[in-house]
Structures are given as structure tokens and as C-alpha cells.
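Sample 3 of the quickstart, ligand zinc ion:
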Amino acid sequence: MPERRPRLLKRLALILLTLVIVAAAALYVLYFRRTPLPAAAPHARVVPAISTIPGIAACWVETGKTFSRFSFGSTAGSVLVRDPAGDLLIDTGNSSHFDDEIRGFPFGTWLKLKSLAGELKPESPLPQLLRQIGEDPAKLRWAILSHVHLDHSGGLMDLPPLPVLLTREELQFANDPSVQARGYVIAAHVQKFPSVAAPTLQFNPVPYETFDESADLYKDGSVVVVPLRGHTPGSVGIFVNLSPERRMFYVGDAVDDERGFEERVGKSMILLDSDNAGKVADQIVGRLNDLHEKVPGLAIIPAHGRSAYKKFFPGGPQSCVSNQYTR
Ligand SMILES: [Zn+2]
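Result:
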């Protein structure tokens, strides 16, 4: 029977091809396909006056990454703002004890955390990376979290104690047992936060860009925080103004990556579940798209959007940009 073997091989090849096609289709549906969202309602822009403050710099501190060779690669970690009035850490990435922190969750929750945030586990602990760029972690003035999810707050477990800026609504969310049960917020991280009774971040009714409220951290317009409620109830975005021309807007997980605000698309299906209030989160995507069109020179940086970091920090991870920087 000389024909049997080629037939078997043919069948195997067909099965393999089918598997590859199914896997590619699943990846497309789960990750690459995004829902186009309606445009935001028209909103006035309040153009801020920005002065160039000597000595300010922003540094990209990357603790974890995936698919870094591809344009869709993602990142996690911190943006360090060096300021003569005291340095600020924006987000902190995952804890170096990530695997221990998620161990006790039910299998489904564990698997989700392990395969999503777990892919962005720190390769080196945050304090070590900070020291590499000449920053003493013990001298940080404060940290601000775009929101309290584990892949943004975990680095606090590796750092010396420091004040963490959070709004009352985000602290309430973080302390909610049902939220912690879903795995996105880790009880041990919440111990590093201020108490619900003593929030450390409050907005003033001062319009800024296309937002109605804002908080000017250094009272000099260099770092301005605005609410981005939706992904979590107290999610925030952080403007860092190095000079009138060199500005970034760190938007946490309000969008997955640059496609979010460029094409006005919502979250990937695989990440939809992480939005606490989907409809409100979708409105924020519209608002960011509107801001991007009104202020094209502003570098909008999604927390995990590696390609956006690479544009703002041409020196790559562990590099800084300042207002003195010229290419
Ligand atoms: Zn995240």
C-alpha cells in the first residue's frame, strides 16, 4: 500500500493548516479587532499657558514588555518626572512578587491575570532600574497611579514607602471586596495606599485642555492631572509639560494603545472585561480622539502602548527627555 503514507501526511498538513487559521482568526477577534466608537460631543478647549521650567525631565522606566520587536508590542513600568521641587513616579508596573500575589485566586481568575498582566512581569525590580538612571528610590517625593489595577500599583511593593496620590473614588473602588475578588486589585497593594478617609488627590473646577476639572501638582503648570473616569471610577490622566512644544499626556488604560485615540476604537475583546464601566470608558476614547485632533503635537501615551513611548523617548527604555533635549 504505497499510497497510504502520502495520504496520511496530506491529512496531517490539512489539520495543521486548519489549526493555524483558527488560531490566527481567534487572535484577530480577541486582540486586533476593535469596535469603532462614536465621536465625542463638541467640547471647548482651554489652551493652557505653559512655561519652560528649568531642570524638568521625564524618563521611561520599563519593567516589563512583550512582542518588543513588533509595532503592537506592549510595555509596563513607570514614567519618572524629575522636578527640582521633588521627583514623581507615574505608575509603577507589576510587583516583582506577581506570581505569589495571584496564587490564591480561583483558576479562571488566575489564568486571566497570569496570561495578561503576568506577561508584563518585571524583568528587574523597579528600584534597580531607577538606580540605573541615577534616581535614588528613597528620595522620590511621591507616586501617582493612573488607576489601582495590579499592573500599575504592584511596583509600590518593591519601593520604599512614599505618598501615593489617589482620589476618594479610586480609593473606594480599591477597598471594595468585590473588586478585589475579581483579581484586578490586590489587597496587599491597597495597604500602600492612603485611607479612603484621607484621599491625596482632589480636582478643582479649573478647566484644562478639553477637561472640566484639573489638579496642578506643582502649582506651576508642569504636571497637571485630569479625571479619566471609566476604566476605573477614579482613573486619571497626567499631563507632563517639559516645554510648550514637548508635552506628554499619560492616559493609563483609557486606551489600549495609539490605535485607541487615532482610530477612535475601544478595547480589544480580551481586555473588555477590565473596564469597570464600559459605556463611560468608550466616551473617554471619543474624548481622547477629539483631544488628539485638536492638539496634534501632544504625545498621548497609553500605559501599555510601547510604540507611543518609543516616539516620545527616542533613546528607548531607561532614557530621559528634557526641555534642553535637541535632536
Ligand atoms: Zn494596565
